[in-house]
Specification:
Strand order of the largest sheet: 3-2-1-4-5-6
Distance between the termini: 70 Å
Oligomer: single chain
Strand content: under 5%
Number of strands: 6
Number of helices: 25
Protein backbone atom coordinates (compact mmCIF):
# COMPACT_ATOMS: atom_id res chain seq x y z
CA UNK A 1 0.00 0.00 0.00
CA UNK A 2 2.85 2.40 0.81
CA UNK A 3 4.31 1.81 -2.67
CA UNK A 4 0.99 2.94 -4.16
CA UNK A 5 1.09 6.17 -2.14
CA UNK A 6 4.71 6.86 -3.03
CA UNK A 7 4.02 6.16 -6.71
CA UNK A 8 1.14 8.64 -6.83
CA UNK A 9 3.25 11.17 -4.90
CA UNK A 10 6.03 10.85 -7.49
CA UNK A 11 3.68 11.37 -10.44
CA UNK A 12 1.97 14.43 -8.95
CA UNK A 13 5.26 15.83 -7.62
CA UNK A 14 6.73 15.47 -11.11
CA UNK A 15 3.75 17.26 -12.65
CA UNK A 16 4.02 20.05 -10.08
CA UNK A 17 7.69 20.54 -10.95
CA UNK A 18 6.89 20.61 -14.66
CA UNK A 19 4.55 23.56 -14.16
CA UNK A 20 7.10 25.45 -12.08
CA UNK A 21 5.84 24.59 -8.59
CA UNK A 22 7.69 22.93 -5.69
CA UNK A 23 7.17 19.12 -5.78
CA UNK A 24 5.80 19.16 -2.23
CA UNK A 25 2.67 20.87 -3.61
CA UNK A 26 2.15 17.70 -5.64
CA UNK A 27 2.77 15.56 -2.56
CA UNK A 28 0.02 17.35 -0.62
CA UNK A 29 -2.35 16.97 -3.57
CA UNK A 30 -1.45 13.28 -3.74
CA UNK A 31 -2.59 12.85 -0.15
CA UNK A 32 -5.89 14.58 -0.94
CA UNK A 33 -6.44 12.42 -4.04
CA UNK A 34 -5.65 9.13 -2.31
CA UNK A 35 -7.90 10.03 0.63
CA UNK A 36 -10.70 10.94 -1.79
CA UNK A 37 -10.57 7.52 -3.50
CA UNK A 38 -10.57 5.69 -0.17
CA UNK A 39 -6.92 4.56 -0.04
CA UNK A 40 -5.65 3.83 3.47
CA UNK A 41 -2.15 4.73 4.61
CA UNK A 42 -0.32 2.23 6.78
CA UNK A 43 1.87 2.58 9.84
CA UNK A 44 5.01 2.59 7.69
CA UNK A 45 3.98 5.86 6.04
CA UNK A 46 3.33 7.53 9.40
CA UNK A 47 6.71 6.35 10.69
CA UNK A 48 8.29 7.74 7.52
CA UNK A 49 6.61 11.08 8.27
CA UNK A 50 7.88 11.10 11.86
CA UNK A 51 11.46 10.43 10.77
CA UNK A 52 11.18 13.19 8.15
CA UNK A 53 10.22 15.76 10.79
CA UNK A 54 13.06 14.58 13.07
CA UNK A 55 15.61 14.89 10.25
CA UNK A 56 14.28 18.35 9.38
CA UNK A 57 14.90 19.52 12.94
CA UNK A 58 18.27 17.76 13.08
CA UNK A 59 19.54 19.52 9.94
CA UNK A 60 18.28 22.85 11.32
CA UNK A 61 20.34 22.19 14.44
CA UNK A 62 23.42 21.42 12.32
CA UNK A 63 23.15 24.83 10.65
CA UNK A 64 22.20 26.74 13.78
CA UNK A 65 24.31 29.88 13.99
CA UNK A 66 23.87 31.35 17.45
CA UNK A 67 25.56 34.60 16.41
CA UNK A 68 22.98 35.10 13.68
CA UNK A 69 20.07 34.32 15.99
CA UNK A 70 21.31 36.82 18.56
CA UNK A 71 21.16 39.65 16.00
CA UNK A 72 18.23 42.01 16.77
CA UNK A 73 17.01 41.80 13.18
CA UNK A 74 16.46 38.08 13.81
CA UNK A 75 15.20 37.41 17.33
CA UNK A 76 13.38 40.73 17.81
CA UNK A 77 11.74 40.61 14.38
CA UNK A 78 10.65 36.99 14.93
CA UNK A 79 9.14 37.64 18.34
CA UNK A 80 7.36 40.79 17.15
CA UNK A 81 6.11 39.19 13.94
CA UNK A 82 4.92 35.98 15.62
CA UNK A 83 3.12 37.92 18.35
CA UNK A 84 1.44 40.38 16.00
CA UNK A 85 0.46 37.71 13.46
CA UNK A 86 -0.98 35.48 16.18
CA UNK A 87 -2.98 38.37 17.64
CA UNK A 88 -4.24 39.75 14.32
CA UNK A 89 -4.95 36.46 12.52
CA UNK A 90 -6.31 34.85 15.69
CA UNK A 91 -8.46 37.91 16.39
CA UNK A 92 -9.92 37.88 12.88
CA UNK A 93 -10.70 34.16 13.18
CA UNK A 94 -12.37 34.67 16.57
CA UNK A 95 -14.51 37.56 15.31
CA UNK A 96 -15.60 35.62 12.23
CA UNK A 97 -16.38 32.68 14.52
CA UNK A 98 -18.82 34.85 16.48
CA UNK A 99 -20.90 35.16 13.30
CA UNK A 100 -21.21 31.36 13.11
CA UNK A 101 -19.71 31.25 9.62
CA UNK A 102 -18.63 27.82 8.38
CA UNK A 103 -15.48 26.36 9.86
CA UNK A 104 -15.02 29.40 12.08
CA UNK A 105 -18.20 28.61 13.99
CA UNK A 106 -17.49 27.59 17.56
CA UNK A 107 -13.86 28.76 17.61
CA UNK A 108 -13.10 29.89 21.14
CA UNK A 109 -10.27 32.27 21.99
CA UNK A 110 -7.78 29.42 22.57
CA UNK A 111 -8.56 27.70 19.25
CA UNK A 112 -8.39 31.03 17.41
CA UNK A 113 -5.01 31.82 19.02
CA UNK A 114 -3.63 28.39 18.04
CA UNK A 115 -4.84 28.96 14.47
CA UNK A 116 -3.17 32.38 14.36
CA UNK A 117 0.02 30.86 15.79
CA UNK A 118 0.02 28.12 13.13
CA UNK A 119 -0.35 30.72 10.37
CA UNK A 120 2.51 32.87 11.73
CA UNK A 121 5.17 30.39 10.55
CA UNK A 122 7.03 30.57 7.25
CA UNK A 123 8.19 27.45 5.47
CA UNK A 124 11.67 26.20 6.36
CA UNK A 125 11.60 23.70 3.51
CA UNK A 126 10.59 26.29 0.92
CA UNK A 127 13.01 29.02 2.05
CA UNK A 128 15.98 26.66 2.43
CA UNK A 129 15.28 25.23 -1.03
CA UNK A 130 15.21 28.74 -2.55
CA UNK A 131 18.45 29.72 -0.79
CA UNK A 132 20.24 26.49 -1.69
CA UNK A 133 19.27 26.75 -5.36
CA UNK A 134 20.86 30.23 -5.40
CA UNK A 135 23.72 29.16 -3.13
CA UNK A 136 22.68 32.12 -0.95
CA UNK A 137 22.59 30.46 2.47
CA UNK A 138 25.68 32.42 3.69
CA UNK A 139 24.43 35.83 2.47
CA UNK A 140 23.11 38.37 4.94
CA UNK A 141 19.55 38.04 3.72
CA UNK A 142 19.91 34.25 3.66
CA UNK A 143 21.29 34.11 7.19
CA UNK A 144 18.60 36.52 8.36
CA UNK A 145 15.82 34.43 6.80
CA UNK A 146 17.23 31.17 8.17
CA UNK A 147 17.66 32.78 11.60
CA UNK A 148 14.01 33.84 11.54
CA UNK A 149 12.99 30.30 10.59
CA UNK A 150 15.11 28.74 13.33
CA UNK A 151 13.60 30.98 16.01
CA UNK A 152 10.13 30.17 14.64
CA UNK A 153 10.98 26.47 14.71
CA UNK A 154 12.19 26.76 18.29
CA UNK A 155 8.84 28.35 19.17
CA UNK A 156 7.09 25.45 17.46
CA UNK A 157 9.19 22.90 19.36
CA UNK A 158 8.35 24.66 22.64
CA UNK A 159 4.67 24.49 21.68
CA UNK A 160 5.00 20.80 20.85
CA UNK A 161 6.70 20.13 24.17
CA UNK A 162 4.07 22.08 26.10
CA UNK A 163 1.21 20.41 24.24
CA UNK A 164 2.04 17.02 25.71
CA UNK A 165 0.88 18.21 29.11
CA UNK A 166 3.63 16.21 30.79
CA UNK A 167 6.34 17.48 33.08
CA UNK A 168 9.91 16.49 32.18
CA UNK A 169 11.48 13.72 34.20
CA UNK A 170 13.86 14.79 36.99
CA UNK A 171 16.52 12.95 35.00
CA UNK A 172 16.19 15.55 32.21
CA UNK A 173 18.67 17.80 34.01
CA UNK A 174 21.26 15.05 33.53
CA UNK A 175 21.32 15.85 29.79
CA UNK A 176 23.56 18.81 30.62
CA UNK A 177 26.25 16.31 31.58
CA UNK A 178 26.49 15.24 27.92
CA UNK A 179 28.11 18.51 26.81
CA UNK A 180 31.65 17.48 27.92
CA UNK A 181 31.29 14.53 25.53
CA UNK A 182 30.97 16.85 22.53
CA UNK A 183 34.66 16.63 21.47
CA UNK A 184 34.40 12.84 21.56
CA UNK A 185 31.28 12.88 19.37
CA UNK A 186 33.01 15.28 16.96
CA UNK A 187 35.93 12.85 16.71
CA UNK A 188 33.47 10.07 15.97
CA UNK A 189 31.99 12.19 13.18
CA UNK A 190 35.45 12.74 11.67
CA UNK A 191 36.09 8.97 11.65
CA UNK A 192 32.92 8.39 9.61
CA UNK A 193 34.61 9.62 6.43
CA UNK A 194 32.61 10.96 3.50
CA UNK A 195 30.31 8.18 2.30
CA UNK A 196 27.32 6.24 3.47
CA UNK A 197 28.79 5.80 6.95
CA UNK A 198 28.57 9.56 7.48
CA UNK A 199 24.91 9.59 6.47
CA UNK A 200 24.15 6.60 8.69
CA UNK A 201 26.00 8.22 11.60
CA UNK A 202 23.96 11.40 11.18
CA UNK A 203 20.71 9.45 11.04
CA UNK A 204 21.68 7.47 14.15
CA UNK A 205 22.55 10.68 16.00
CA UNK A 206 19.22 12.32 15.09
CA UNK A 207 17.14 9.31 16.09
CA UNK A 208 19.30 8.71 19.17
CA UNK A 209 18.82 12.29 20.36
CA UNK A 210 15.07 11.99 19.83
CA UNK A 211 14.92 8.71 21.76
CA UNK A 212 17.03 10.11 24.59
CA UNK A 213 14.75 13.13 25.06
CA UNK A 214 11.67 10.95 24.87
CA UNK A 215 13.18 8.75 27.61
CA UNK A 216 13.22 11.70 30.03
CA UNK A 217 9.70 12.85 29.02
CA UNK A 218 10.88 15.64 26.71
CA UNK A 219 9.58 16.04 23.18
CA UNK A 220 11.47 13.83 20.72
CA UNK A 221 11.49 16.66 18.15
CA UNK A 222 13.43 18.82 20.59
CA UNK A 223 15.93 15.97 21.01
CA UNK A 224 16.57 15.83 17.25
CA UNK A 225 17.18 19.59 17.20
CA UNK A 226 19.51 19.36 20.19
CA UNK A 227 21.44 16.51 18.53
CA UNK A 228 22.01 18.73 15.49
CA UNK A 229 23.26 21.56 17.69
CA UNK A 230 25.52 19.05 19.48
CA UNK A 231 27.23 18.20 16.17
CA UNK A 232 27.09 21.74 14.80
CA UNK A 233 30.32 23.67 14.44
CA UNK A 234 32.28 20.60 13.36
CA UNK A 235 34.00 21.00 9.95
CA UNK A 236 31.99 18.05 8.66
CA UNK A 237 28.62 19.34 9.84
CA UNK A 238 27.97 21.15 6.53
CA UNK A 239 28.88 18.02 4.59
CA UNK A 240 26.59 15.98 6.82
CA UNK A 241 23.72 18.43 6.30
CA UNK A 242 24.14 18.20 2.53
CA UNK A 243 24.39 14.41 2.67
CA UNK A 244 21.17 14.17 4.65
CA UNK A 245 19.29 16.68 2.48
CA UNK A 246 17.94 14.19 -0.06
CA UNK A 247 17.22 11.58 2.59
CA UNK A 248 15.31 14.16 4.66
CA UNK A 249 13.31 15.27 1.61
CA UNK A 250 12.31 11.68 0.85
CA UNK A 251 11.13 11.06 4.41
CA UNK A 252 9.20 14.34 4.42
CA UNK A 253 7.17 13.07 1.47
CA UNK A 254 5.50 10.80 4.02
CA UNK A 255 4.63 13.81 6.17
CA UNK A 256 2.96 15.70 3.33
CA UNK A 257 1.08 12.58 2.26
CA UNK A 258 -0.26 11.97 5.76
CA UNK A 259 -1.38 15.60 6.01
CA UNK A 260 -3.33 15.26 2.80
CA UNK A 261 -4.78 12.00 4.05
CA UNK A 262 -6.58 13.76 6.91
CA UNK A 263 -9.59 14.28 4.70
CA UNK A 264 -10.74 15.19 1.22
CA UNK A 265 -11.09 18.94 0.72
CA UNK A 266 -14.56 20.41 0.30
CA UNK A 267 -15.66 23.61 -1.42
CA UNK A 268 -15.99 25.26 1.99
CA UNK A 269 -12.42 24.29 2.96
CA UNK A 270 -11.14 25.66 -0.35
CA UNK A 271 -12.93 28.98 0.16
CA UNK A 272 -11.61 29.33 3.72
CA UNK A 273 -8.09 28.46 2.50
CA UNK A 274 -8.36 31.19 -0.15
CA UNK A 275 -9.44 33.61 2.58
CA UNK A 276 -6.32 32.67 4.58
CA UNK A 277 -4.16 33.21 1.49
CA UNK A 278 -5.77 36.65 1.10
CA UNK A 279 -4.27 37.50 4.51
CA UNK A 280 -0.77 36.47 3.35
CA UNK A 281 0.16 39.92 1.96
CA UNK A 282 -0.44 41.35 5.43
CA UNK A 283 1.94 38.83 6.95
CA UNK A 284 4.51 39.59 4.24
CA UNK A 285 4.18 43.38 4.63
CA UNK A 286 4.69 43.01 8.37
CA UNK A 287 8.03 41.27 7.78
CA UNK A 288 9.12 44.07 5.43
CA UNK A 289 8.18 46.82 7.89
CA UNK A 290 9.91 45.12 10.82
CA UNK A 291 13.12 44.52 8.84
CA UNK A 292 13.11 48.17 7.81
CA UNK A 293 12.88 49.22 11.45
CA UNK A 294 16.10 47.30 12.11
CA UNK A 295 17.98 49.17 9.35
CA UNK A 296 18.31 46.42 6.74
CA UNK A 297 18.93 47.70 3.23
CA UNK A 298 15.92 47.57 0.92
CA UNK A 299 17.49 44.77 -1.15
CA UNK A 300 18.31 42.58 1.85
CA UNK A 301 14.90 43.35 3.30
CA UNK A 302 13.01 42.48 0.12
CA UNK A 303 14.87 39.23 -0.60
CA UNK A 304 14.49 38.01 2.99
CA UNK A 305 10.81 38.99 2.99
CA UNK A 306 10.11 37.17 -0.27
CA UNK A 307 11.71 33.96 1.04
CA UNK A 308 9.38 34.13 4.07
CA UNK A 309 6.22 35.04 2.12
CA UNK A 310 4.34 31.76 2.62
CA UNK A 311 2.69 29.51 5.15
CA UNK A 312 4.62 26.65 6.67
CA UNK A 313 4.84 22.91 7.10
CA UNK A 314 5.46 23.70 10.77
CA UNK A 315 2.03 25.28 10.77
CA UNK A 316 0.78 21.88 9.68
CA UNK A 317 2.68 20.25 12.54
CA UNK A 318 1.12 22.71 15.01
CA UNK A 319 -2.26 22.06 13.38
CA UNK A 320 -1.76 18.31 13.74
CA UNK A 321 -1.07 18.67 17.48
CA UNK A 322 -4.02 21.04 17.89
CA UNK A 323 -6.29 18.60 16.06
CA UNK A 324 -5.09 15.66 18.19
CA UNK A 325 -5.71 17.74 21.34
CA UNK A 326 -9.23 18.62 20.25
CA UNK A 327 -8.54 22.36 19.94
CA UNK A 328 -9.13 22.40 16.17
CA UNK A 329 -11.20 20.04 14.03
CA UNK A 330 -9.57 17.80 11.44
CA UNK A 331 -11.18 19.96 8.74
CA UNK A 332 -8.95 22.83 9.81
CA UNK A 333 -5.84 20.71 9.25
CA UNK A 334 -6.91 20.02 5.67
CA UNK A 335 -7.75 23.72 5.18
CA UNK A 336 -4.33 24.81 6.45
CA UNK A 337 -2.70 22.27 4.13
CA UNK A 338 -4.55 23.76 1.15
CA UNK A 339 -3.49 27.27 2.19
CA UNK A 340 0.13 26.10 2.51
CA UNK A 341 0.00 24.59 -0.99
CA UNK A 342 -1.45 27.74 -2.54
CA UNK A 343 1.07 29.93 -0.72
CA UNK A 344 3.92 27.84 -2.17
CA UNK A 345 2.41 28.17 -5.65
CA UNK A 346 2.35 31.97 -5.27
CA UNK A 347 5.73 32.34 -3.55
CA UNK A 348 7.63 30.22 -6.09
CA UNK A 349 7.45 32.64 -9.07
CA UNK A 350 7.84 35.58 -6.68
CA UNK A 351 11.21 34.27 -5.48
CA UNK A 352 12.28 33.23 -8.98
CA UNK A 353 11.92 36.86 -10.09
CA UNK A 354 13.14 38.41 -6.83
CA UNK A 355 16.34 39.94 -8.23
CA UNK A 356 14.52 41.28 -11.29
CA UNK A 357 11.72 42.77 -9.19
CA UNK A 358 14.21 44.56 -6.96
CA UNK A 359 16.05 46.05 -9.91
CA UNK A 360 12.76 47.26 -11.36
CA UNK A 361 11.39 48.85 -8.18
CA UNK A 362 14.50 49.77 -6.19
CA UNK A 363 14.08 53.50 -6.87
CA UNK A 364 10.67 53.38 -5.21
CA UNK A 365 11.84 51.55 -2.09
CA UNK A 366 12.72 53.69 0.88
CA UNK A 367 16.22 53.09 2.23
CA UNK A 368 17.17 53.48 5.86
CA UNK A 369 19.63 56.39 6.31
CA UNK A 370 21.66 54.18 8.67
CA UNK A 371 23.26 50.85 7.83
CA UNK A 372 24.18 47.90 9.98
CA UNK A 373 27.95 47.15 9.92
CA UNK A 374 27.60 44.22 7.50
CA UNK A 375 26.09 46.51 4.87
CA UNK A 376 28.48 49.44 5.12
CA UNK A 377 30.15 50.71 1.95
CA UNK A 378 33.49 49.19 0.91
CA UNK A 379 36.07 51.46 -0.74
CA UNK A 380 38.03 49.60 -3.47
CA UNK A 381 38.50 52.38 -6.03
CA UNK A 382 41.94 51.02 -6.96
CA UNK A 383 40.50 47.69 -8.15
CA UNK A 384 41.21 46.50 -11.69
CA UNK A 385 40.10 42.87 -11.38
CA UNK A 386 37.12 41.72 -9.32
CA UNK A 387 36.60 38.08 -8.37
CA UNK A 388 33.26 36.99 -6.95
CA UNK A 389 33.17 33.67 -5.13
CA UNK A 390 36.31 32.94 -3.16
CA UNK A 391 36.06 29.18 -3.05
CA UNK A 392 38.75 26.92 -4.46
CA UNK A 393 38.37 28.16 -8.04
CA UNK A 394 38.13 31.82 -7.07
CA UNK A 395 41.07 31.56 -4.69
CA UNK A 396 43.25 29.94 -7.35
CA UNK A 397 42.36 32.66 -9.84
CA UNK A 398 43.03 35.36 -7.23
CA UNK A 399 46.51 34.05 -6.36
CA UNK A 400 47.48 33.64 -10.02
CA UNK A 401 46.32 37.10 -11.05
CA UNK A 402 47.76 38.86 -8.01
CA UNK A 403 51.16 37.32 -8.72
CA UNK A 404 51.07 39.02 -12.11
CA UNK A 405 49.21 42.27 -11.48
CA UNK A 406 49.70 43.06 -7.81
CA UNK A 407 47.15 44.16 -5.26
CA UNK A 408 44.70 45.55 -7.78
CA UNK A 409 42.97 42.16 -7.66
CA UNK A 410 40.05 42.20 -5.20
CA UNK A 411 37.98 39.23 -4.04
CA UNK A 412 34.42 39.18 -2.77
CA UNK A 413 32.38 36.54 -1.03
CA UNK A 414 29.07 36.33 0.81
CA UNK A 415 30.26 34.22 3.76
CA UNK A 416 31.88 36.00 6.70
CA UNK A 417 33.91 32.97 7.81
CA UNK A 418 35.41 32.56 4.34
CA UNK A 419 36.38 36.23 4.25
CA UNK A 420 38.04 36.04 7.67
CA UNK A 421 40.19 33.12 6.49
CA UNK A 422 41.32 34.94 3.35
CA UNK A 423 42.09 38.16 5.20
CA UNK A 424 44.21 36.18 7.68
CA UNK A 425 46.22 34.89 4.69
CA UNK A 426 46.81 38.40 3.36
CA UNK A 427 44.23 38.57 0.57
CA UNK A 428 42.02 41.59 -0.07
CA UNK A 429 38.58 40.03 0.24
CA UNK A 430 35.36 41.82 1.18
CA UNK A 431 31.75 40.99 1.94
CA UNK A 432 29.64 41.62 -1.17
CA UNK A 433 27.28 39.91 -3.60
CA UNK A 434 27.59 40.11 -7.38
CA UNK A 435 23.80 39.89 -7.68
CA UNK A 436 23.35 43.07 -5.66
CA UNK A 437 21.59 45.64 -7.83
CA UNK A 438 23.36 48.39 -5.84
CA UNK A 439 26.74 46.88 -6.66
CA UNK A 440 28.63 50.00 -7.78
CA UNK A 441 27.10 52.27 -5.14
CA UNK A 442 27.84 49.97 -2.21
CA UNK A 443 31.33 48.85 -3.26
CA UNK A 444 32.55 52.24 -4.49
CA UNK A 445 34.56 50.95 -7.41
CA UNK A 446 35.60 52.89 -10.47
CA UNK A 447 33.83 51.26 -13.44
CA UNK A 448 36.27 52.84 -15.89
CA UNK A 449 39.24 51.32 -14.08
CA UNK A 450 37.80 47.85 -13.47
CA UNK A 451 38.31 45.99 -16.72
CA UNK A 452 37.66 42.39 -15.69
CA UNK A 453 35.15 40.59 -13.49
CA UNK A 454 35.51 36.88 -12.74
CA UNK A 455 32.36 35.11 -11.52
CA UNK A 456 33.45 31.96 -9.71
CA UNK A 457 30.27 31.32 -7.73
CA UNK A 458 29.00 27.75 -7.52
CA UNK A 459 25.41 28.72 -8.36
CA UNK A 460 24.58 28.98 -12.06
CA UNK A 461 21.58 31.15 -11.19
CA UNK A 462 23.77 33.64 -9.29
CA UNK A 463 26.28 33.78 -12.15
CA UNK A 464 23.49 34.45 -14.66
CA UNK A 465 21.88 37.12 -12.49
CA UNK A 466 25.27 38.75 -11.86
CA UNK A 467 26.05 38.89 -15.59
CA UNK A 468 22.72 40.53 -16.36
CA UNK A 469 23.19 42.95 -13.49
CA UNK A 470 26.70 43.94 -14.64
CA UNK A 471 25.47 44.47 -18.20
CA UNK A 472 22.49 46.48 -16.95
CA UNK A 473 24.95 48.78 -15.15
CA UNK A 474 26.69 49.42 -18.53
CA UNK A 475 29.93 47.99 -17.16
CA UNK A 476 32.54 48.45 -19.93
CA UNK A 477 34.95 45.68 -18.91
CA UNK A 478 35.12 41.98 -19.71
CA UNK A 479 33.19 39.35 -17.77
CA UNK A 480 34.19 35.71 -17.39
CA UNK A 481 32.24 33.05 -15.50
CA UNK A 482 32.67 29.44 -14.41
CA UNK A 483 30.25 26.59 -15.05
CA UNK A 484 29.98 23.28 -13.25
CA UNK A 485 28.28 21.50 -16.16
CA UNK A 486 28.89 21.63 -19.90
CA UNK A 487 25.32 22.64 -20.75
CA UNK A 488 25.67 25.75 -18.55
CA UNK A 489 28.41 27.30 -20.68
CA UNK A 490 26.12 28.40 -23.52
CA UNK A 491 23.66 29.94 -21.06
CA UNK A 492 26.42 32.09 -19.56
CA UNK A 493 27.56 33.29 -23.00
CA UNK A 494 23.97 34.01 -24.02
CA UNK A 495 23.46 36.04 -20.82
CA UNK A 496 26.36 38.30 -21.77
CA UNK A 497 29.60 36.72 -20.49
CA UNK A 498 32.65 37.26 -22.70
CA UNK A 499 34.06 33.89 -21.67
CA UNK A 500 32.76 30.84 -19.80
CA UNK A 501 34.85 27.98 -18.46
CA UNK A 502 33.67 24.47 -17.68
CA UNK A 503 35.61 23.91 -14.45
CA UNK A 504 35.61 20.11 -14.50
CA UNK A 505 36.61 19.93 -18.16
CA UNK A 506 39.71 22.03 -17.47
CA UNK A 507 40.64 20.32 -14.21
CA UNK A 508 42.64 17.59 -15.97
CA UNK A 509 45.04 19.95 -17.70
CA UNK A 510 45.66 21.81 -14.45
CA UNK A 511 46.37 18.51 -12.72
CA UNK A 512 48.76 17.48 -15.48
CA UNK A 513 50.65 20.77 -15.22
CA UNK A 514 51.11 20.31 -11.50
CA UNK A 515 52.22 16.70 -12.00
CA UNK A 516 54.86 17.73 -14.54
CA UNK A 517 56.56 19.85 -11.90
CA UNK A 518 57.69 16.55 -10.32
CA UNK A 519 60.06 15.97 -13.22
CA UNK A 520 63.39 17.73 -13.44
CA UNK A 521 64.03 19.62 -16.68
CA UNK A 522 67.14 17.49 -17.32
CA UNK A 523 65.36 14.14 -17.12
CA UNK A 524 62.12 14.92 -18.93
CA UNK A 525 61.80 18.17 -20.88
CA UNK A 526 58.05 18.18 -21.54
CA UNK A 527 56.47 20.87 -23.67
CA UNK A 528 54.93 23.62 -21.58
CA UNK A 529 51.26 23.26 -20.77
CA UNK A 530 49.05 26.27 -20.33
CA UNK A 531 46.69 26.07 -17.38
CA UNK A 532 43.23 27.26 -18.48
CA UNK A 533 43.13 30.63 -16.82
CA UNK A 534 42.36 34.22 -17.61
CA UNK A 535 45.98 35.15 -18.26
CA UNK A 536 45.87 34.77 -22.11
CA UNK A 537 42.68 36.81 -22.39
CA UNK A 538 44.08 39.46 -20.08
CA UNK A 539 46.98 40.02 -22.44
CA UNK A 540 44.66 39.96 -25.44
CA UNK A 541 42.48 42.62 -23.84
CA UNK A 542 45.45 44.88 -23.24
CA UNK A 543 45.65 44.32 -19.48
CA UNK A 544 49.33 44.12 -18.79
CA UNK A 545 51.14 43.34 -15.53
CA UNK A 546 51.95 46.23 -13.30
CA UNK A 547 55.62 47.17 -13.25
CA UNK A 548 55.77 46.75 -9.48
CA UNK A 549 54.08 43.32 -9.44
Amino acid sequence: MELQWIGVAFVLGFLAKRVGQPPLVGFLVAGFVLEAVGAQSGDALRELADVGVLLLLFTIGLKLDLKSILQPQVWAVTLAHTSLTTIVFGGVAFLVGLTGFGLFAGLDHRAAAVLGFALSFSSTIFAVKVLEDRDDMPTLYGRTAVGILVVQDLAAVIFLAASTGKLPSPWAIALVALFPLRPLVHRFLAFCGHGELLVLGGLATALGGAALFDLVSLKADLGALAAGVFLGGHPKSKELAKSLMSLKDVFLVGFFLTVGANGAPTVEMLLVALALVALLPLKTWLFYRLFARFRLRARTNLLATFSLANYSEFGLIVGTIASASGWLSGDWLVTIAIAVSISFALASPLNTRAFELYRRFRDRLRESPERIPEEAAVDVVDAEVLIFGMGRVGTGAYDTLRARFGDVVIGFDVESATIEGHVAEGRRVYLASATDADFWERLRVDPDRVRLVLLAMSSQLENLVAIRQIRAEKFPGRVAATARYADEVDALITAGADAAFHVMAHAGSGFAEEALTLFSPESVPPPPLQRPSMAPSLAADGIVPRSDA
